[in-house]
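Journal club prep — side note

Before the paper discussion, L.F. wants everyone to see what a predicted structure for a comparable chain looks like in C-alpha coordinate form. Sequence:
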Amino acid sequence: MLSVAGALISLYLLTKHFDKSDKDDLFASVCEATGGGCEEVLESRWAYFPPLSAEEIEAARAGAPATQAAPQTATQSAEPDAAGQAPATQSAGASPTPAKRLRVPVALLGAIYFSVLAVWFVAIGRVSPARRVWHWAPLGSVSLGLLGSFGFIYVMMTELDAWCPWCLACHVANFAIFVLMVLAYPRRAPAGGAESQGAHSTVGAGAQTSVVESLHPSSRLVGVTGLAIGGVALAVICFANWLGWQSRARNLDRQNREYKRVVADYLEDGVAMFRTYQGNPKHDLTDRPGSHVRGGGTHPLHTVIFADFECPHCREVSEFLEQKVQPLFRNSMRIVFKHYPLCSDCNPHVKTKVHPHACEAGRAAEAACLQGGNDAFWKAHDKLFADQRNLRGYDYGEFATALGLDRDRLLKDMESELVAARISDDIELAKSLNIEATPRVFVLGREVPAIAVKQMPFWETLAQAYRAEINKREQNRARATSPHG
Protein backbone atom coordinates (compact mmCIF):
# COMPACT_ATOMS: atom_id res chain seq x y z
CA MET A 1 0.00 0.00 0.00
CA LEU A 2 2.87 2.37 0.77
CA SER A 3 4.42 1.84 -2.66
CA VAL A 4 1.06 2.36 -4.37
CA ALA A 5 0.54 5.58 -2.38
CA GLY A 6 4.03 6.75 -3.31
CA ALA A 7 3.39 6.02 -6.98
CA LEU A 8 0.09 7.91 -6.97
CA ILE A 9 1.60 10.93 -5.21
CA SER A 10 4.54 10.94 -7.62
CA LEU A 11 2.20 10.82 -10.62
CA TYR A 12 0.18 13.63 -9.08
CA LEU A 13 3.35 15.70 -8.69
CA LEU A 14 4.29 14.85 -12.25
CA THR A 15 1.05 16.39 -13.53
CA LYS A 16 1.79 19.54 -11.54
CA HIS A 17 5.35 19.55 -12.86
CA PHE A 18 4.05 19.92 -16.41
CA ASP A 19 1.04 22.10 -15.71
CA LYS A 20 1.76 24.45 -12.86
CA SER A 21 -1.20 26.59 -13.86
CA ASP A 22 -3.58 23.79 -12.77
CA LYS A 23 -3.81 24.66 -9.07
CA ASP A 24 -6.63 22.46 -7.82
CA ASP A 25 -8.01 22.87 -4.31
CA LEU A 26 -6.42 19.71 -2.90
CA PHE A 27 -2.93 20.53 -4.08
CA ALA A 28 -3.15 24.17 -2.99
CA SER A 29 -4.76 23.50 0.38
CA VAL A 30 -2.17 20.90 1.40
CA CYS A 31 0.69 23.15 0.29
CA GLU A 32 -0.67 26.24 2.01
CA ALA A 33 -1.31 24.32 5.21
CA THR A 34 2.40 23.51 5.42
CA GLY A 35 3.89 26.80 4.34
CA GLY A 36 3.21 26.84 0.60
CA GLY A 37 6.58 25.69 -0.71
CA CYS A 38 5.36 23.29 -3.38
CA GLU A 39 5.80 25.64 -6.32
CA GLU A 40 9.27 26.69 -5.21
CA VAL A 41 10.38 23.06 -5.08
CA LEU A 42 8.75 22.08 -8.38
CA GLU A 43 10.29 25.09 -10.14
CA SER A 44 13.77 24.68 -8.68
CA ARG A 45 16.78 23.19 -10.43
CA TRP A 46 16.43 20.14 -8.16
CA ALA A 47 13.11 19.19 -9.74
CA TYR A 48 15.18 17.50 -12.47
CA PHE A 49 17.85 14.84 -12.36
CA PRO A 50 20.61 15.69 -12.92
CA PRO A 51 19.86 19.14 -11.49
CA LEU A 52 19.48 21.93 -14.00
CA SER A 53 22.14 24.53 -14.55
CA ALA A 54 21.25 28.18 -14.03
CA GLU A 55 20.89 28.70 -17.80
CA GLU A 56 18.38 25.84 -18.07
CA ILE A 57 15.99 26.76 -15.30
CA GLU A 58 13.88 29.13 -17.42
CA ALA A 59 13.80 26.64 -20.26
CA ALA A 60 12.58 23.92 -17.94
CA ARG A 61 9.64 26.08 -16.94
CA ALA A 62 8.48 26.08 -20.56
CA GLY A 63 7.27 22.52 -20.08
CA ALA A 64 9.25 20.34 -22.47
CA PRO A 65 8.55 16.60 -22.80
CA ALA A 66 9.86 14.54 -19.90
CA THR A 67 12.49 12.28 -21.38
CA GLN A 68 14.31 14.50 -23.84
CA ALA A 69 17.54 16.36 -23.99
CA ALA A 70 17.90 19.50 -21.96
CA PRO A 71 14.56 21.35 -22.23
CA GLN A 72 14.49 23.46 -25.33
CA THR A 73 14.19 27.18 -24.95
CA ALA A 74 10.64 28.26 -25.63
CA THR A 75 10.05 31.09 -28.06
CA GLN A 76 8.54 34.29 -26.77
CA SER A 77 6.83 36.95 -28.77
CA ALA A 78 8.66 40.24 -28.98
CA GLU A 79 6.90 43.52 -29.46
CA PRO A 80 8.26 45.98 -31.99
CA ASP A 81 11.36 47.67 -30.62
CA ALA A 82 12.14 51.36 -30.45
CA ALA A 83 13.23 51.26 -34.06
CA GLY A 84 9.81 49.96 -35.05
CA GLN A 85 10.95 46.50 -36.10
CA ALA A 86 8.18 44.07 -36.88
CA PRO A 87 7.22 41.46 -34.26
CA ALA A 88 9.58 38.54 -34.18
CA THR A 89 10.37 35.51 -32.07
CA GLN A 90 13.38 35.30 -29.87
CA SER A 91 14.84 32.69 -27.58
CA ALA A 92 14.00 33.01 -23.92
CA GLY A 93 17.32 33.89 -22.35
CA ALA A 94 20.14 35.63 -24.12
CA SER A 95 22.90 33.34 -22.91
CA PRO A 96 24.33 30.69 -25.22
CA THR A 97 22.40 27.42 -25.29
CA PRO A 98 24.10 24.93 -22.95
CA ALA A 99 25.14 21.50 -24.12
CA LYS A 100 22.11 19.25 -24.30
CA ARG A 101 21.95 16.56 -21.67
CA LEU A 102 19.24 14.19 -20.56
CA ARG A 103 16.99 15.84 -18.01
CA VAL A 104 14.38 13.74 -16.20
CA PRO A 105 11.83 15.16 -13.75
CA VAL A 106 12.39 13.77 -10.25
CA ALA A 107 8.65 13.16 -10.02
CA LEU A 108 8.94 10.80 -12.99
CA LEU A 109 11.77 8.90 -11.30
CA GLY A 110 9.64 8.65 -8.16
CA ALA A 111 6.63 7.38 -10.13
CA ILE A 112 8.74 4.69 -11.83
CA TYR A 113 10.44 3.77 -8.55
CA PHE A 114 7.27 3.32 -6.50
CA SER A 115 5.42 1.64 -9.39
CA VAL A 116 8.19 -0.92 -9.79
CA LEU A 117 8.15 -1.64 -6.03
CA ALA A 118 4.36 -1.99 -6.11
CA VAL A 119 4.53 -4.55 -8.91
CA TRP A 120 7.25 -6.49 -7.08
CA PHE A 121 5.38 -6.58 -3.78
CA VAL A 122 2.10 -7.61 -5.43
CA ALA A 123 3.66 -10.29 -7.62
CA ILE A 124 6.45 -11.57 -5.32
CA GLY A 125 5.69 -10.43 -1.82
CA ARG A 126 7.77 -12.05 0.90
CA VAL A 127 10.35 -14.51 -0.38
CA SER A 128 11.28 -17.82 1.23
CA PRO A 129 14.59 -18.20 3.07
CA ALA A 130 15.96 -20.40 0.31
CA ARG A 131 15.33 -17.58 -2.20
CA ARG A 132 16.30 -14.68 0.06
CA VAL A 133 18.68 -13.45 -2.64
CA TRP A 134 15.59 -12.02 -4.33
CA HIS A 135 14.90 -9.98 -1.22
CA TRP A 136 18.12 -8.07 -1.78
CA ALA A 137 16.92 -6.71 -5.14
CA PRO A 138 14.08 -4.56 -3.77
CA LEU A 139 15.96 -3.92 -0.50
CA GLY A 140 18.95 -2.57 -2.40
CA SER A 141 16.70 -0.39 -4.54
CA VAL A 142 14.90 0.93 -1.48
CA SER A 143 18.22 1.63 0.22
CA LEU A 144 19.37 3.73 -2.72
CA GLY A 145 15.99 5.40 -2.83
CA LEU A 146 16.25 6.23 0.86
CA LEU A 147 19.60 7.89 0.27
CA GLY A 148 17.94 9.95 -2.45
CA SER A 149 15.13 10.88 -0.06
CA PHE A 150 17.60 12.08 2.56
CA GLY A 151 19.39 14.08 -0.14
CA PHE A 152 16.21 15.82 -1.32
CA ILE A 153 15.13 16.54 2.25
CA TYR A 154 18.53 18.11 2.87
CA VAL A 155 18.15 20.27 -0.27
CA MET A 156 14.70 21.47 0.77
CA MET A 157 16.01 22.28 4.25
CA THR A 158 19.25 24.04 3.32
CA GLU A 159 19.24 25.30 -0.27
CA LEU A 160 15.59 25.89 -1.07
CA ASP A 161 14.30 26.77 2.39
CA ALA A 162 10.93 25.52 1.17
CA TRP A 163 8.99 22.39 2.02
CA CYS A 164 6.79 20.41 -0.32
CA PRO A 165 4.42 18.25 1.77
CA TRP A 166 3.63 16.02 -1.19
CA CYS A 167 7.33 15.34 -1.67
CA LEU A 168 7.77 14.72 2.04
CA ALA A 169 4.92 12.20 1.96
CA CYS A 170 6.83 10.23 -0.70
CA HIS A 171 10.03 10.35 1.35
CA VAL A 172 8.19 9.19 4.51
CA ALA A 173 6.60 6.34 2.54
CA ASN A 174 10.03 5.41 1.24
CA PHE A 175 11.46 5.30 4.78
CA ALA A 176 8.54 3.16 6.00
CA ILE A 177 9.05 0.74 3.10
CA PHE A 178 12.73 0.43 4.01
CA VAL A 179 11.89 -0.37 7.64
CA LEU A 180 9.34 -3.00 6.63
CA MET A 181 11.76 -4.52 4.13
CA VAL A 182 14.39 -4.89 6.88
CA LEU A 183 11.88 -6.45 9.27
CA ALA A 184 10.63 -8.79 6.56
CA TYR A 185 14.08 -10.15 5.76
CA PRO A 186 13.73 -13.96 5.42
CA ARG A 187 15.62 -15.78 8.16
CA ARG A 188 17.37 -19.08 7.56
CA ALA A 189 15.13 -22.02 8.53
CA PRO A 190 16.20 -24.09 11.57
CA ALA A 191 18.23 -27.22 10.80
CA GLY A 192 15.97 -30.16 10.06
CA GLY A 193 13.03 -27.85 9.69
CA ALA A 194 10.40 -27.63 6.98
CA GLU A 195 12.90 -26.62 4.32
CA SER A 196 15.13 -29.72 4.95
CA GLN A 197 12.20 -32.05 5.23
CA GLY A 198 10.54 -30.66 2.16
CA ALA A 199 13.72 -30.98 0.13
CA HIS A 200 13.91 -34.76 0.71
CA SER A 201 10.28 -35.74 1.20
CA THR A 202 8.33 -37.08 -1.70
CA VAL A 203 5.28 -38.36 0.18
CA GLY A 204 2.17 -36.44 1.13
CA ALA A 205 0.56 -33.23 -0.03
CA GLY A 206 1.90 -31.31 2.98
CA ALA A 207 5.46 -32.11 2.02
CA GLN A 208 4.86 -31.01 -1.60
CA THR A 209 3.45 -27.69 -0.41
CA SER A 210 6.49 -27.17 1.76
CA VAL A 211 8.77 -27.65 -1.24
CA VAL A 212 6.87 -25.06 -3.26
CA GLU A 213 6.87 -22.53 -0.45
CA SER A 214 10.57 -23.03 0.20
CA LEU A 215 11.35 -22.11 -3.43
CA HIS A 216 9.28 -18.89 -3.65
CA PRO A 217 9.66 -17.02 -5.93
CA SER A 218 10.20 -19.41 -8.80
CA SER A 219 12.38 -18.44 -11.71
CA ARG A 220 9.32 -18.25 -13.95
CA LEU A 221 7.56 -15.90 -11.52
CA VAL A 222 10.63 -13.67 -11.33
CA GLY A 223 10.81 -13.56 -15.12
CA VAL A 224 7.12 -12.69 -15.49
CA THR A 225 7.45 -10.05 -12.77
CA GLY A 226 10.43 -8.56 -14.56
CA LEU A 227 8.38 -8.23 -17.74
CA ALA A 228 5.53 -6.66 -15.77
CA ILE A 229 7.94 -4.19 -14.18
CA GLY A 230 9.29 -3.24 -17.59
CA GLY A 231 5.77 -2.75 -18.93
CA VAL A 232 4.71 -0.61 -15.97
CA ALA A 233 7.87 1.51 -16.19
CA LEU A 234 7.30 2.02 -19.92
CA ALA A 235 3.68 2.97 -19.30
CA VAL A 236 4.75 5.57 -16.71
CA ILE A 237 7.32 7.03 -19.14
CA CYS A 238 4.74 7.19 -21.93
CA PHE A 239 2.29 8.91 -19.59
CA ALA A 240 4.98 11.42 -18.61
CA ASN A 241 5.78 12.16 -22.23
CA TRP A 242 2.08 12.57 -22.99
CA LEU A 243 1.91 15.11 -20.15
CA GLY A 244 4.97 16.82 -21.58
CA TRP A 245 3.53 17.11 -25.07
CA GLN A 246 0.24 18.34 -23.62
CA SER A 247 2.17 20.98 -21.72
CA ARG A 248 4.07 21.99 -24.85
CA ALA A 249 0.79 22.25 -26.76
CA ARG A 250 -0.59 24.55 -24.05
CA ASN A 251 2.56 26.66 -24.14
CA LEU A 252 2.43 26.94 -27.91
CA ASP A 253 -1.22 27.91 -27.70
CA ARG A 254 -0.43 30.61 -25.15
CA GLN A 255 2.46 31.86 -27.26
CA ASN A 256 0.25 31.85 -30.34
CA ARG A 257 -2.38 33.93 -28.57
CA GLU A 258 0.30 36.30 -27.32
CA TYR A 259 1.80 36.56 -30.80
CA LYS A 260 -1.61 37.34 -32.29
CA ARG A 261 -2.15 39.99 -29.65
CA VAL A 262 1.22 41.59 -30.37
CA VAL A 263 0.61 41.49 -34.12
CA ALA A 264 -2.88 42.95 -33.69
CA ASP A 265 -1.44 45.78 -31.59
CA TYR A 266 1.33 46.32 -34.13
CA LEU A 267 -1.13 46.50 -37.03
CA GLU A 268 -3.03 49.21 -35.21
CA ASP A 269 0.14 51.19 -34.56
CA GLY A 270 0.76 53.22 -37.68
CA VAL A 271 3.83 54.88 -36.19
CA ALA A 272 5.52 51.53 -35.48
CA MET A 273 4.87 50.30 -39.01
CA PHE A 274 6.08 53.61 -40.43
CA ARG A 275 9.31 53.30 -38.44
CA THR A 276 9.83 49.83 -39.83
CA TYR A 277 9.33 51.26 -43.32
CA GLN A 278 11.80 54.08 -42.61
CA GLY A 279 14.36 51.53 -41.44
CA ASN A 280 14.34 49.73 -44.79
CA PRO A 281 17.10 50.56 -47.27
CA LYS A 282 16.36 53.06 -50.03
CA HIS A 283 16.69 51.88 -53.63
CA ASP A 284 16.94 53.73 -56.90
CA LEU A 285 13.69 52.92 -58.69
CA THR A 286 13.77 55.72 -61.21
CA ASP A 287 11.23 55.20 -64.00
CA ARG A 288 12.63 53.79 -67.22
CA PRO A 289 11.27 54.87 -70.61
CA GLY A 290 7.95 53.19 -71.19
CA SER A 291 7.18 52.65 -67.49
CA HIS A 292 3.54 51.97 -66.72
CA VAL A 293 2.43 54.90 -64.59
CA ARG A 294 -0.96 55.75 -63.12
CA GLY A 295 -1.76 58.85 -61.08
CA GLY A 296 0.53 61.56 -59.81
CA GLY A 297 0.28 65.30 -59.45
CA THR A 298 2.23 68.36 -58.52
CA HIS A 299 3.91 66.47 -55.72
CA PRO A 300 3.77 62.81 -56.78
CA LEU A 301 4.36 60.04 -54.27
CA HIS A 302 6.43 57.57 -56.26
CA THR A 303 5.03 54.09 -55.59
CA VAL A 304 6.22 50.91 -57.33
CA ILE A 305 4.35 47.63 -57.13
CA PHE A 306 5.82 44.33 -58.30
CA ALA A 307 2.92 42.07 -59.16
CA ASP A 308 1.68 38.99 -60.97
CA PHE A 309 -1.62 39.06 -62.86
CA GLU A 310 -2.59 35.61 -61.55
CA CYS A 311 -1.82 36.47 -57.93
CA PRO A 312 -5.04 37.05 -55.93
CA HIS A 313 -3.24 39.08 -53.29
CA CYS A 314 -1.77 41.32 -56.00
CA ARG A 315 -5.26 42.07 -57.25
CA GLU A 316 -6.42 42.86 -53.71
CA VAL A 317 -3.47 45.18 -53.06
CA SER A 318 -3.93 46.92 -56.41
CA GLU A 319 -7.58 47.59 -55.63
CA PHE A 320 -6.71 48.66 -52.09
CA LEU A 321 -4.15 51.20 -53.30
CA GLU A 322 -6.54 52.62 -55.89
CA GLN A 323 -9.67 52.74 -53.75
CA LYS A 324 -8.43 53.35 -50.21
CA VAL A 325 -4.91 54.77 -50.30
CA GLN A 326 -4.95 57.04 -53.34
CA PRO A 327 -7.67 59.32 -51.83
CA LEU A 328 -5.48 59.82 -48.72
CA PHE A 329 -2.91 61.45 -50.96
CA ARG A 330 -5.48 63.36 -53.00
CA ASN A 331 -4.68 61.26 -56.06
CA SER A 332 -1.00 62.21 -55.85
CA MET A 333 0.25 58.62 -55.73
CA ARG A 334 2.29 57.87 -58.83
CA ILE A 335 1.78 54.10 -59.10
CA VAL A 336 4.28 52.26 -61.30
CA PHE A 337 3.58 48.66 -62.24
CA LYS A 338 6.43 46.11 -62.52
CA HIS A 339 6.16 42.49 -63.58
CA TYR A 340 7.26 39.59 -61.43
CA PRO A 341 5.27 36.56 -62.63
CA LEU A 342 5.66 33.48 -60.44
CA CYS A 343 6.04 31.18 -63.40
CA SER A 344 9.15 29.51 -64.74
CA ASP A 345 8.01 30.03 -68.35
CA CYS A 346 9.40 33.57 -68.29
CA ASN A 347 10.94 33.94 -64.85
CA PRO A 348 14.23 32.03 -64.55
CA HIS A 349 14.35 32.74 -60.81
CA VAL A 350 11.23 30.69 -60.16
CA LYS A 351 11.62 26.92 -60.25
CA THR A 352 7.95 25.99 -60.55
CA LYS A 353 4.80 27.31 -62.17
CA VAL A 354 3.10 28.76 -59.13
CA HIS A 355 0.89 30.81 -61.42
CA PRO A 356 1.08 29.00 -64.78
CA HIS A 357 -0.79 31.69 -66.75
CA ALA A 358 0.96 34.75 -65.32
CA CYS A 359 3.60 35.05 -68.06
CA GLU A 360 1.01 34.95 -70.82
CA ALA A 361 -1.13 37.57 -69.03
CA GLY A 362 1.92 39.81 -68.56
CA ARG A 363 2.76 39.55 -72.28
CA ALA A 364 -0.82 40.49 -73.15
CA ALA A 365 -0.62 43.63 -71.01
CA GLU A 366 2.70 44.63 -72.61
CA ALA A 367 1.33 43.94 -76.09
CA ALA A 368 -1.63 46.19 -75.30
CA CYS A 369 0.80 48.91 -74.29
CA LEU A 370 2.64 48.61 -77.62
CA GLN A 371 -0.60 49.37 -79.42
CA GLY A 372 -2.36 51.85 -77.19
CA GLY A 373 0.30 53.21 -74.90
CA ASN A 374 0.10 53.70 -71.15
CA ASP A 375 -3.70 54.04 -71.06
CA ALA A 376 -4.13 50.74 -72.92
CA PHE A 377 -1.79 49.01 -70.47
CA TRP A 378 -3.84 50.08 -67.47
CA LYS A 379 -7.07 49.05 -69.16
CA ALA A 380 -5.47 45.67 -69.79
CA HIS A 381 -4.24 45.66 -66.17
CA ASP A 382 -7.73 46.19 -64.81
CA LYS A 383 -9.34 43.64 -67.11
CA LEU A 384 -6.78 40.94 -66.45
CA PHE A 385 -7.24 41.31 -62.72
CA ALA A 386 -11.01 41.32 -63.16
CA ASP A 387 -10.82 38.10 -65.22
CA GLN A 388 -8.12 36.58 -63.01
CA ARG A 389 -10.03 33.40 -62.23
CA ASN A 390 -10.55 32.70 -65.94
CA LEU A 391 -6.98 33.05 -67.21
CA ARG A 392 -6.75 29.34 -68.00
CA GLY A 393 -7.58 29.06 -71.70
CA TYR A 394 -8.17 32.81 -71.84
CA ASP A 395 -9.20 34.18 -75.24
CA TYR A 396 -6.75 37.03 -75.83
CA GLY A 397 -8.34 37.77 -79.20
CA GLU A 398 -11.58 38.68 -77.44
CA PHE A 399 -9.50 40.47 -74.83
CA ALA A 400 -8.02 42.72 -77.56
CA THR A 401 -11.44 43.40 -79.00
CA ALA A 402 -12.81 44.36 -75.58
CA LEU A 403 -10.00 46.89 -75.22
CA GLY A 404 -10.58 48.30 -78.71
CA LEU A 405 -7.23 46.98 -79.98
CA ASP A 406 -6.24 45.14 -83.11
CA ARG A 407 -6.72 41.46 -82.37
CA ASP A 408 -4.10 40.03 -84.72
CA ARG A 409 -1.44 42.55 -83.82
CA LEU A 410 -1.88 41.95 -80.10
CA LEU A 411 -1.51 38.19 -80.53
CA LYS A 412 1.59 38.75 -82.65
CA ASP A 413 3.13 41.25 -80.24
CA MET A 414 2.59 38.86 -77.35
CA GLU A 415 5.25 36.62 -78.91
CA SER A 416 7.67 39.43 -79.74
CA GLU A 417 11.13 39.79 -78.25
CA LEU A 418 10.38 43.38 -77.23
CA VAL A 419 7.53 42.27 -74.99
CA ALA A 420 9.63 39.47 -73.53
CA ALA A 421 12.49 41.91 -72.89
CA ARG A 422 10.26 44.35 -71.02
CA ILE A 423 9.04 41.61 -68.67
CA SER A 424 12.57 40.28 -68.29
CA ASP A 425 13.88 43.72 -67.30
CA ASP A 426 11.31 43.96 -64.51
CA ILE A 427 12.12 40.44 -63.32
CA GLU A 428 15.84 41.20 -63.09
CA LEU A 429 15.14 44.44 -61.25
CA ALA A 430 13.00 42.52 -58.77
CA LYS A 431 15.75 39.97 -58.32
CA SER A 432 18.25 42.72 -57.54
CA LEU A 433 15.87 43.82 -54.78
CA ASN A 434 15.72 40.25 -53.39
CA ILE A 435 12.07 39.92 -54.28
CA GLU A 436 10.88 36.33 -54.27
CA ALA A 437 7.11 36.72 -53.90
CA THR A 438 4.37 39.12 -54.82
CA PRO A 439 3.06 41.67 -54.24
CA ARG A 440 5.87 43.93 -53.12
CA VAL A 441 5.29 47.67 -52.75
CA PHE A 442 7.97 50.38 -52.65
CA VAL A 443 7.25 54.01 -51.74
CA LEU A 444 9.94 56.59 -52.46
CA GLY A 445 12.40 53.75 -52.96
CA ARG A 446 11.76 52.03 -49.61
CA GLU A 447 9.89 48.77 -49.34
CA VAL A 448 6.64 48.84 -47.43
CA PRO A 449 6.61 45.95 -44.90
CA ALA A 450 4.45 43.19 -46.33
CA ILE A 451 2.44 43.08 -43.12
CA ALA A 452 1.64 46.80 -43.46
CA VAL A 453 0.68 46.98 -47.15
CA LYS A 454 -3.07 46.70 -46.50
CA GLN A 455 -3.13 48.46 -43.14
CA MET A 456 -4.73 51.89 -43.16
CA PRO A 457 -2.93 53.09 -39.97
CA PHE A 458 0.37 52.80 -41.84
CA TRP A 459 -0.85 54.72 -44.88
CA GLU A 460 -2.49 57.37 -42.70
CA THR A 461 0.80 57.90 -40.87
CA LEU A 462 2.66 58.00 -44.17
CA ALA A 463 0.14 60.50 -45.55
CA GLN A 464 0.70 62.76 -42.54
CA ALA A 465 4.46 62.61 -43.00
CA TYR A 466 4.04 63.20 -46.74
CA ARG A 467 1.85 66.28 -46.24
CA ALA A 468 4.21 67.62 -43.58
CA GLU A 469 7.13 67.25 -45.98
CA ILE A 470 5.22 68.95 -48.81
CA ASN A 471 4.25 71.84 -46.52
CA LYS A 472 7.85 72.19 -45.42
CA ARG A 473 9.03 72.33 -49.04
CA GLU A 474 6.43 74.94 -49.95
CA GLN A 475 7.36 77.07 -46.94
CA ASN A 476 11.05 76.87 -47.87
CA ARG A 477 10.22 77.80 -51.45
CA ALA A 478 8.10 80.70 -50.27
CA ARG A 479 10.89 82.00 -48.07
CA ALA A 480 13.38 81.60 -50.91
CA THR A 481 11.23 83.66 -53.29
CA SER A 482 10.17 86.26 -50.71
CA PRO A 483 11.84 89.66 -51.21
CA HIS A 484 12.47 89.75 -47.46
CA GLY A 485 13.86 86.14 -47.42
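L.F.'s comment for the group: Residues 69 and 102 are 4 Å apart (CA to CA). Keep this in mind when we get to the figures.
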